[in-house]
């Protein structure tokens, strides 16, 4: 058996390999389930029902999928240029902090709802972008490894979020009322700062949050940027071959900063949507926003969508369903962590499947006899 | 005198630095063979949970249980590393993405949490834990007592590991071969060294060290299991390898420096010392300092001369040189 590089990549493989990876991943996860004494087929049926079929399931899946769409797009935007921004987690927190400040202040001062929401979106983007620009600047000017620096800032952002609500009487913290004296929480956002949702009349009413619409818009913009503009082209060349890009006179530093900024802004927008769409306060609860790991899951989403913005949306929906099922079913039959295990296995399979996109596996003896029918893309 | 802030911070810095040291030594071995493994955090957590499980479930004396726990943790870490090794060495996947995948798979919301939940380990104190080795008299000697003689067996074992790794890499034939594989796999291959085997072996060894590092957390530092108990130590260990210029003896210095930074937060808070938003900056300090030191090292622009293996992160395919 030989493995050789493909000269051309058939288009069908680009879809077939992720799909095949998913099937393989479900099989491998089934082995993990069986090994720990669970009934795998039954677990899968429960997951599917809880994610997409049961009453209210699709609505909940959208709640999980919306932030994953943002963090997935954030990872896709940066990873396309081989800038490994794994700080979406922290950028989302800072975006949420900034957007909550805008919502509390402007909403409290009686601005019209549309303007308050626009300001929250802008603040979320700015907060996320600012947090992402720290590793961006360090990478652009000091060649500091952005993987480690962006990851370290996730912990700092989490401590900042906790600090604002738990350790200080900050602007974001509720200081009046009985509950506030028992357990520290964030201030409720005023009504004008709550994001509207459209309702689809199925499954007893599915709320389509504004954030989901914004994610769709962001994906379209990102797709245009990468496939139709000079900026996107140059960013990809820089990722694939930094040396060629430099010879061609492309501006490396500027592009690193811009791409990190865009990536952070997308994650920050996800934070704003958390405030406005779902949580309606700055959520610093240790079992709340910080336990969701949206930023890390976004990497899975982006890699599985092969960094294509629209594919990212589809994958975000599917993984969102898995995440939602994990939360709904959590209990003795369905230990927490299972969803992370499955996501990891899915990502491993997608990575392994990549081999079949880039290389063809030839069975040597048969290949010599009938080269046209060489075993390609199997498994 | 032994209660002074400096002595206490250094003494607990050595203890807190030990998991960082084990993990960094393991990562160093893998990187020296040319394999970057960003899954350290995940491997540590799986080692931590499996080590803790062994101590809780094995009905044996303290010494035997603890030794078995360290062994199980090493095997668990190596098993995690095997996934990464298979993907990046055999299947030639991107080392960065595969390492991230390993952390997601095994990490705080993945396999380690699943195992901790499924084996019902949370919220119970450890049945046995690593305690101080030397008698109390020695521990009360001024300054040297708490720092040198107040530590547990894993700390002393880590010193032996530093010496062993240093000797192995600089004074033995296989050590020389590893360095050749990391610097120039094509030349190593031409010399008859089995690149694939060396890379597998050292990636697995790296995983075993990471597993032990995890067990150090759950059996010596905070003897219990909670999800994500390592709190980013795996990532700091990866950064440590860079600061240490890929040299084991410098890993020791770096690990204790970052251990001391971690020890500072609880000490300042316990002594009621307030300097601005103390909770915020003391907790964030290790992470911020990691970035600061990383910038200092990378800005010097001499990364290559300082010891980064030339073939780090590059898959070796014999047909494609």
Q: Could you give a short description of this structure?
A:
The complex is a heterodimer of chains A (379) and B (321). Chain A has 379 residues and is mostly helical.
Give your account of this protein's structure.
The complex is a heterodimer of chains A (379) and B (321). By secondary structure, chain A is mostly helical. Chain A has 15 helices and four strands. In chain B, helix 3 runs antiparallel to helix 11. Chain B is globular. The mean pLDDT of chain B is 87. The interface between A and B is large, with 50 and 54 residues.
User: C-alpha Rg of chain A, in Å?
Assistant: 22 Å
The count of DSSP E runs of length 2 or more, i.e. the number of strands of chain A, is 4
Q: Helix segment count of chain A?
A: 15
Low-confidence stretches of chain B: none
Number of beta strands of chain B: 0
Taken in chain order, the helices and strands of chain A follow as EHHHHHHHEEHHHHHHHEH
Uncertain stretches of chain A = 367-379
Overall geometry of chain B comes to globular
Listing every helix as H and every strand as E from the N terminus to the C terminus, the arrangement of chain B reads: HHHHHHHHHHHHHH
- Calculate the mean pLDDT score of chain B and round it: 87
Helix amount of chain B: 55-70%
Shape of chain A: globular
Distance from N terminus to C terminus of chain B (CA atoms, Å) equals 62 Å
Task: Tell me the fraction of residues in β-strands of chain B, as a range.
Answer: under 5%
What fraction, in percent, of the residue positions of chain A are helical?
Answer: 55-70%
Structural class of chain A, please?
mainly alpha
């Amino acid at each position: 058996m030989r493995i050789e590089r493909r000269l051309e990549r058939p288009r069908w493989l680009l879809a077939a390999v992720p799909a095949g990876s998913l099937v393989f991943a479900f099989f491998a996860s089934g082995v993990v389930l069986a090994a720990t004494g669970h009934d795998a087929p039954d677990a899968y049926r429960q997951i599917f029902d809880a994610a997409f079929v049961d009453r209210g399931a699709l609505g909940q899946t959208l709640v999980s999928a919306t932030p994953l769409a943002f963090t997935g797009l954030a990872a896709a935007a940066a990873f396309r240029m081989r800038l490994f921004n794994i700080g979406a987690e922290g950028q989302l927190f800072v975006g949420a902090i900034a957007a909550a400040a805008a919502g509390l202040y402007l909403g409290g001062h009686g601005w019209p709802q549309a303007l308050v929401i626009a300001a929250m979106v802008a603040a979320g983007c700015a907060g996320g972008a600012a947090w992402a620009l720290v590793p961006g600047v360090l990478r652009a000017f000091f060649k500091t490894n952005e993987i480690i620096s962006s990851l370290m800032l996730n912990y700092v952002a989490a401590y900042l979020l906790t600090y604002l609500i738990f350790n200080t009487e900050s602007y974001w913290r509720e200081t009046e009322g009985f509950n506030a004296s028992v357990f520290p929480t964030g201030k409720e956002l005023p009504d004008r700062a709550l994001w509207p949702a459209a309702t689809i009349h199925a499954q007893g009413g599915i709320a389509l949050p504004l954030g989901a619409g914004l994610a769709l818009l962001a994906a379209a913009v990102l797709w245009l940027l990468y496939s139709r503009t000079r900026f996107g082209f140059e960013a990809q060349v820089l990722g694939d071959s930094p040396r060629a890009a430099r010879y061609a006179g492309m501006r490396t530093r500027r592009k690193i900063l811009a791409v990190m900024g865009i990536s952070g802004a997308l994650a920050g927008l996800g934070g704003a949507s958390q405030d406005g769409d779902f949580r309606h306060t700055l959520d610093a609860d240790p079992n709340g926003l910080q336990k969701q790991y949206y930023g890390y899951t976004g990497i899975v989403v982006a890699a599985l969508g092969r960094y294509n913005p629209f594919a990212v949306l589809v994958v975000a929906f599917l993984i969102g369903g898995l995440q939602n099922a994990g939360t709904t079913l959590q209990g003795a039959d369905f230990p927490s962590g299972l969803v992370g295990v499955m996501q990891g296995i899915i990502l491993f399979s997608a990575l392994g499947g990549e081999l079949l996109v880039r290389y063809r596996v030839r069975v040597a003896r048969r290949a010599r006899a009938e080269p046209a029918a060489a075993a390609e893309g199997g498994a | 005198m032994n209660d002074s802030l400096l002595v206490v911070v250094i003494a607990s810095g050595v203890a807190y630095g030990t998991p960082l040291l084990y993990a960094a030594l393991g990562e160093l071995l893998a990187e020296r063979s040319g394999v970057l493994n960003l899954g350290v955090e995940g491997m540590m957590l799986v080692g931590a949970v499996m080590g803790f499980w062994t101590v809780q479930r094995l009905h044996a004396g303290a010494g035997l249980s603890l030794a078995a726990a360290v062994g199980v943790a090493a095997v668990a870490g190596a098993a995690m590393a095997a996934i990464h090794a298979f993907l990046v060495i055999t299947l030639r996947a991107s080392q960065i993405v595969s390492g991230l995948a390993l952390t997601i798979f095994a990490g705080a919301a993945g396999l380690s949490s699943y195992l901790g939940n499924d084996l019902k380990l949370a919220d119970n104190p450890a049945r046995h834990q690593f305690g101080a080795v030397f008698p109390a008299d020695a521990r009360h000697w001024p300054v040297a007592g708490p720092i040198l003689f107040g530590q547990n067996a894993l700390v002393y074992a880590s010193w032996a590991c530093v010496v062993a790794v240093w000797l192995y890499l600089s004074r033995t034939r296989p050590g020389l071969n590893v360095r050749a594989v990391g610097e120039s796999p094509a030349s190593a291959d031409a010399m008859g060294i089995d690149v694939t085997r060396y890379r597998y072996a050292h990636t697995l060894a790296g995983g075993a060290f990471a597993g032990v590092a995890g067990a150090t957390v759950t059996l010596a530092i905070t003897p219990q299991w909670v999800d994500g108990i390592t709190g980013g130590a795996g990532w700091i260990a990866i950064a440590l390898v860079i600061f240490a210029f890929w040299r084991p003896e410098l890993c020791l210095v770096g690990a204790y420096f970052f251990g001391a930074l971690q020890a500072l937060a609880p000490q300042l808070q316990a002594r009621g010392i307030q300097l601005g938003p103390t909770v915020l900056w003391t907790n964030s300090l290790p992470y911020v300092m990691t970035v600061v030191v990383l910038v200092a090292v990378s800005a010097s622009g001499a990364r290559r001369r300082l010891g980064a293996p030339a073939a780090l992160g590059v898959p070796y395919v014999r047909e494609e040189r």
